[in-house]
Amino acid sequence: MIGKDKICAVVAAERSRSMWKQLERALLQTRTVELRLDWLLTEKEMQAFLRRLATERPRATLIATCRRREAGGRFRGTIASQLLVLAEALRAGCGWCDLEIESASQCPPELLEVLIGGGRRLASAHFFRAHSAGWHSVAARLWRTRPDAVKIAANSSSLADGLRLLRLANGKRNIVAIPMGEVALPLRCLALREGSVLSYAPVEMATAPGQVPLDALKNLYRADRISRKTRVYGVIGDPIAHSLSPQLQNAGFQARKMDAVYLPFLVHNLRDFISAVEPLGVRGFSVTLPYKQKILRHLHDCDSLATAIGAVNTVVVRGAGKLYGYNTDYIGVLRALQLRISLPASRVLIVGAGGAARAVAFALAQSGAAVCICARRAQEAKMLARAVGGEAVTRGRLREEFFDAIVNATPVGMFPAVERSPLTEHELNCRLVFDLIYRPVETKLLQLAARRGIETISGLEMFLAQGVAQWEIWTGERAPVVAMRRAVLDALGVEGKQNFRAQA
Ligand code: NAP
User: Fold this and answer.
1) Whole-angstrom Cα distance, residue 305 to residue 492?
2) Which residues contact 476 (CB under 8 A, 6 or more apart)?
3) pTM, entire model
């Protein structure tokens, strides 16, 4: 065991004062902290920080790291000066130091023992590019330098890659395994469950790709409390970083004190994710852009509504890894629209013909609305219009047509491309505009509509309703809606809250 707390905060700053502030913030969450001394800009800053450390001696397991540039760090000095910094950090109160293999392999173990004295040493290896290394042989090489623990951090471009690395730690003592990269982010949350003795999280500045910030790793994903019994859920999509589903779903689990976690999976390759469902013990997942239709071919079965829509946003994993699909976007659309317009008497234009557009089209058609579809691919628009007994409308006609409502079901205008709008101001001839996008709450399209005096609805209302329905499908219980709503509003910040409350 390295520290009592298994989440290791990474403290990294260019100035001694900001490094100290980060350390204080880290200690509010965990008593295991890595100090990235190589980030300090000058020798003077480093000395100032170590002096303060020696004076104040915080009660924590501190790991001193002074990684050289050759191993992906920022320290420009020689190996000898690196070792001197580490020795001084140990004297100042660090219980551990981390020395990369590039340096350790240049020193006889006896010399390292003398230099490091009573401190303990983590021998580390970093692979920032794709690597086909046999992790057991890398670990054996590290153990030959006679450290107290070993750490391997490797870029993992797939979940399969990351899982291979995590298996190294399974059932062993004193191995830290860190799959790096955006795709492997959920594996950082599950690393402790898989046997890694630490999972690293930055307080402020990311020091490696795919890191989860300390606050999120500890309080949103509760990585140090995930065990084999914890039910794992998630959301798959590309991109996924904008999604507030983790805030929404985890708030539900936490409010009900359930041993469950919901993780964001950035999926570039659907097969890679499907193959990881069983080894990771995933019990269910949400599906977002661009997989709502692509997921269908991986399902064992689908409920009749989702089959009719031809798109799935909710998957339940049952025995033997069999996947069952549902669609809760349908419920979300109706909740958002029904309060504002009388659907049976209205003519509604849907922009886009993808997964969400299909759910909107079926929901509206079944409620008696006349449905029109406009999509950049005319054939897709015609097919969806035909499926719901509606009409395809070309973009050129929009300036002359009038609709009761226009619904944007494309991702145009979604964070981060917030300046874009799927339609121009002159194409908004309607009483109501509903943008399915919820981030930002007030999209460019909604701003254009408001400027013309048109009533607007943000995608947030639908987002909440579809997410609550997912939570209830997975757990079989009534969702704690108030806590879930509050978590999303908090994540969106005050501005989002005001806009949303004004609409609700
Ligand atoms: P999808 O299945 O990939 O469909 C996207 C649709 O938008 C397709 O018709 C696509 O056309 C079209 N499109 C994409 N980029 C475009 C562009 N630059 N110009 C014109 N059309 C474009 O995605 P989805 O799952 O339906 O999601 C669509 C949006 O709805 C996303 O922003 C998503 O976040 C949002 N959504 C919100 C909620 C909620 O709860 N609020 C729920 C579901 C979805 P092509 O087929 O030609 O690519």
Assistant:
1) 31
2) none
3) 0.90
- CATH code linked to domain 7-210: 3.20.20.70
Mark out the alpha helices in 285-420 (DSSP H runs).
304-309, 329-338, 355-366, 378-387
| Cβ atoms of 328 and 470 closer than 8 Å | yes
Q: Which two tokens stand for residue 201?
A: 């999280």
Angle at 114 between CA 112 and CA 118, to 5 degrees: 100
Residue 237 CB less than 6 A away from ligand 1: no
Answer yes or no: 257 catalytic. Answer: no
- Any atom of ligand 1 within 6 Å of the Cβ of 353: yes
Question: For residue 480, what pLDDT is reported?
Answer: 98
Which superfamily does CATH assign the domain made up of 338-463 to?
NAD(P)-binding Rossmann-like Domain (3.40.50.720)
- Atom 14 of ligand 1 has which residue's CA nearest to it? 410
Q: Which residue type sits at 316?
A: V
- Which tokens belong to 44? 């003077």
Edge-to-edge strand list for the sheet holding 370-374: 391-392, 370-374, 347-351, 403-408, 430-435, 455-457
Domain ranges of the chain: 7-210, 338-463
- Indicate if ligand 1 lies below 6 Å from the C-beta of 355: yes
Quick check: helix, strand or coil at residue 10? strand
pLDDT band per the 50, 70, 90 thresholds, residue 499 = low
Task: Write the DSSP string, 315-329.
Answer: EEEEGGGEEEEE--H
Task: Quote the pLDDT of residue 495.
Answer: 47
Cβ(420) – ligand 1 distance below 6 Å: no
Contacts of 447 (CB under 8 A, 6+ apart): none
250 CA distance to ligand 1 centroid (A)?
25
